[in-house]
Specification:
The complex is a heterodimer of chains A (about 300) and B (about 325). With about 300 residues, chain A is mainly α. Helices cover about 65% and strands about 0% of the residues of chain A. In chain B, about 80% of the residues lie in helices and about 0% in strands. In chain B, strand 1 and strand 2 form a beta hairpin. Classes of the chains: A mainly alpha (about 300), B mainly alpha (about 325).
Chain lengths: ~300, ~325
């Protein structure tokens, strides 16, 4: 301000930013949200933990060759030490290798079922919200019906009958998890469809498909992305429960819940390495997903955004 | 008010019918007939067909559904061919045990979560708030069975204060008095629910604290204690009503896992053994009961909320 106070105005220089604060490029919604997310230390911690588990489960077995395929009765229930960093179980399988293998299943089912849930939910919610009237009412009652079904019971019944695989569990869990995303997307679409840019697109001759695909869904993406992370967490908890009850994945696939229930019988013998490492893995992955989800919600919610 | 309740009741009945059709059709598709269970694994197809015809299992599924629902209205849940007992008698033998376990945990978790959440909101960003939030966050991510295992390890095996098994008594009175056996199952379910509820109470209390009527109450000189009790607490608890109604499926799932883990013979353990034995009628009955409880829970929650919060009725 000292220059202007001298009286004479400085020559106009449009290449220089005016004094009194720079004008940067306009921050669009997504970039702002990303910056907000990056400033959240808890969220970054969650992201680091999740990336670690992805690398640990999928790249880990390339470098660490533990035995999880043939039982080795000469080295059962070995405590952690050289050769077996996390000990062995009652079959002589290496715990660390089992946990890596179980991590693959947990993450695969988690992400795949979340993907299924989001795709079905987003389309269902968008169509319902856009259609309105009778179709909307019927579609939402269907959501109510599915929401009232005790989901774990049905998953258990079907898994017992047809056997559990990564694919079948993903389809099953995804098939029962699209309800909340559907409600969220419908709510967004109801708010969006009266906005000017949607009317403009409609006037310009956009069909329903284009309206949903190009205008409504991209703008409702925020709530969907937040929900994905919670879906992953819920799916991982669900297959852990399934495995713990003894109806999880079949050998040679492993799941964390099954490993844990296997170790329970030896709790009294003090074989802690068969229970606590795998339990900690479940808690850490689920916590990481929840942390990321909370942070995403905060960073995409304009009302909570720090100025 | 009456109109709102009638409308809400109508939707619930429609949803209940939809749920029963879906569950019945699904289980029927998975297990078309219990003939093999009754006649033995070596029964030939002629015998099986004759048995199916005699017992109505060759009718179209919609006919079977209507017959099943007709029986259900008379309190007949079908017959367990595995346990040679009617499903109704199986359920009546154990439902009170489950109701006690889940009821006590639910009441305890609400009674603890409300003051905890309100405290966190008032003392926001203090050490106490951070500690409670972190603990709730860890518990929220913890599978029910893993929490139960940790409690068993610490309090039953290491310290020896409580039993690692739920009460095995058949008398409800004995179970109610048996805190040595029941503390750990109750604590497991309670802690999981507190983690869920306190997060909501904390955020709804923070919303209420930012409202103008709290500022007015403070400005007119009302003692802080009365501001909290009369204005904050009552409004911050409103979402709890809906939350309890919505969380019934999770409570039932938690009940199933806790009863299995602690070998406590309630509805959850009955369902678990039915899964292992593929006891079709028990699975069907308990899934339907679970769905009905969920729908009734939501209905009661909505009506209770409309009584507690007059703004709802306008919507």
């Amino acid at each position: 301000m000292s220059q202007t106070s001298a009286g004479a105005l400085p020559p106009l220089d449009i290449t220089r930013a005016p004094e009194g604060g720079g004008i940067g490029p306009v921050q669009t919604g997504w970039r702002l949200a990303l910056r907000e997310f990056a400033q959240n230390k808890l969220a970054l911690t969650g992201l680091v933990v999740l990336v670690f588990f992805v690398l640990f489960s999928f790249i880990g077995p390339v470098f660490y060759h533990g035995n999880y395929l043939t039982s080795d009765l000469l080295s059962t229930n070995v405590p952690p030490g050289a050769g077996h960093p996390l000990g062995t179980n009652n079959q002589g399988y290496d715990e660390l290798a089992l946990i890596m293998k179980g991590g693959q299943a947990a993450l695969e089912v988690g992400f795949f079922s979340a993907f299924i849930a989001i795709v079905i939910g987003a389309l269902w919610g968008a169509i319902s919200g856009l259609a309105g009237g009778i179709l909307d009412a019927v579609m939402m009652r269907v959501v109510d019906v599915f929401l009232s079904i005790p989901f774990l019971f049905i998953v258990l019944i079907v898994a017992v009958r047809y056997g559990a695989s990564v694919l079948s569990l993903s389809l099953l869990i995804g098939g029962f998890s699209w309800l909340v995303p559907a409600r969220l997307v419908r709510g967004e679409v109801l708010a969006l469809r009266v906005r000017d840019f949607v009317s403009a697109a409609r006037v310009a001759g956009a069909g329903q498909t284009r309206l949903i695909g190009r205008h409504l869904l991209p703008n409702a993406l925020g709530v969907v992305i937040v929900n994905v992370t919670f879906q992953v967490a819920d799916a991982i908890l669900a297959i852990a429960a399934l495995g713990f009850l003894g109806f999880g994945l079949q050998w040679p696939n492993q799941d964390w819940g099954d490993l844990l229930s296997n170790g329970v019988g030896y709790l009294q013998d003090g074989y802690w390495w068969q229970v606590y490492p795998v339990g900690a893995c479940i808690v850490l992955v689920v916590m990481a997903c929840n942390l990321i989800g909370d942070a995403l919600r905060d960073s995409l919610d304009v009302r909570l955004r720090r100025r | 008010m009456i109109g709102y309740i009638a409308r809400r009741l109508g939707t619930s009945i429609v949803v209940l019918l939809g749920v029963s059709v879906f569950i019945f059709a699904l289980l029927h598709a998975i297990y078309p007939s219990p003939a093999i269970d009754v006649l033995g694994p070596r029964a030939n197809t002629v015998l099986i067909q004759a048995w199916n015809k005699q017992n109505g299992f060759d009718d179209p599924w919609i006919v079977q559904y209507l017959r099943y629902m007709g029986h259900l209205l008379q309190g007949n849940f079908g017959y367990s061919y595995k346990l040679n007992q009617s499903v109704a008698s199986l359920i009546s033998g154990v439902w009170a045990r489950s109701a006690w376990l889940s009821g006590v945990s639910l009441v305890l978790s609400v009674v603890i979560a409300i003051p905890l959440g309100v405290y966190q909101a008032i003392r926001r960003n203090t050490v106490g708030d951070y500690a409670a939030t972190s603990l709730a966050f860890v518990l929220y991510a913890m599978p029910v069975f893993f929490l139960g295992l940790i409690l068993i390890q610490v309090f039953a095996l290491d310290l020896g204060w409580f039993s690692f098994e739920g009460s095995q008594s058949t008398s409800l009175l004995a179970i109610i008095g048996d805190w040595h056996a029941m503390t750990l199952p109750v604590a497991t379910l309670t802690l999981i629910s507190i983690a869920l509820f306190s997060r909501y109470i904390r955020s709804s209390s923070m919303d209420v604290l930012a409202q103008d009527y709290i500022k007015v109450a403070r400005a007119k000189g009302l003692p802080e204690r009365l501001v909290l009790l009369r204005h904050l607490l009552r409004n911050a608890c409103l979402p709890m009503v809906t939350l309890i109604g919505l969380s019934i499926p999770q409570l039932l799932a938690g009940n199933l896992i806790t009863e299995t883990l602690f070998n406590y013979r309630g509805l959850g353990l009955l369902f678990y053994t039915a899964l292992q034995d593929v006891d079709y009628n028990v699975l069907l009955a308990y899934t339907l009961i679970g769905a009905a409880l969920t729908i009734i829970g939501n209905l009661v929650a909505d009506i209770a909320l409309s009584v507690a919060d007059p703004r709802i009725r306008l919507a």
